[in-house]
Design a protein that fits this description.
five-stranded mixed β-sheet; Trna Endonuclease, Chain: A, domain 1; single chain; globular; 34% strand; alpha+beta
């Protein structure tokens, strides 16, 4: 019986996304649940850097109105200047978290963000695209 290969052409950075999410599973599998968000962030930074990726943490993007800075945005991670990774410690995706990531995509003019929740029973992730 021949093997079928499923290939989607509409995914953004599929290999990178897969590895980013794999790192989150690696972190959760070693640390487990119940830690502060900053511990997961520190562990992810180690995992991402071990991939020899260009990793930027707490990347500043200003919020502007009429070209005047009115606020500050800080992305948890920017990977390879392509993908925003925002992490939370939660069991579900709140509208507030999704809106935050959509805003990050808008102000950065990037195309893909991955929202990762470290919850009591594992991780959940959501890819969010800037159209």
């Amino acid at each position: 019986m021949p093997t079928r290969v499923l290939k989607r052409n509409d995914l953004l950075y599929p290999e990178l996304s897969y590895e980013i999410i794999g790192c989150a599973y690696e972190v959760f599998n070693e640390l487990g649940s119940g830690h502060p968000e900053k511990y997961y962030q520190r562990a992810l930074a180690i995992a991402y850097k071990q991939k020899n990726w260009l990793v930027q943490e707490q990347v500043y993007f200003p919020a502007k109105f009429k070209e005047i800075i009115i606020g500050k945005n800080y992305l948890d991670f920017l990977i390879e200047n392509k993908v925003i990774v925002e992490i939370k410690k939660d069991n579900y995706f709140s509208k507030k978290n999704i809106d935050q990531v959509l805003n990050y995509l808008k102000v950065s003019n990037l195309k893909l963000a991955i929202l990762i929740n470290f919850g009591a029973d594992g991780i959940r992730f959501k890819s969010i695209i800037n159209l």
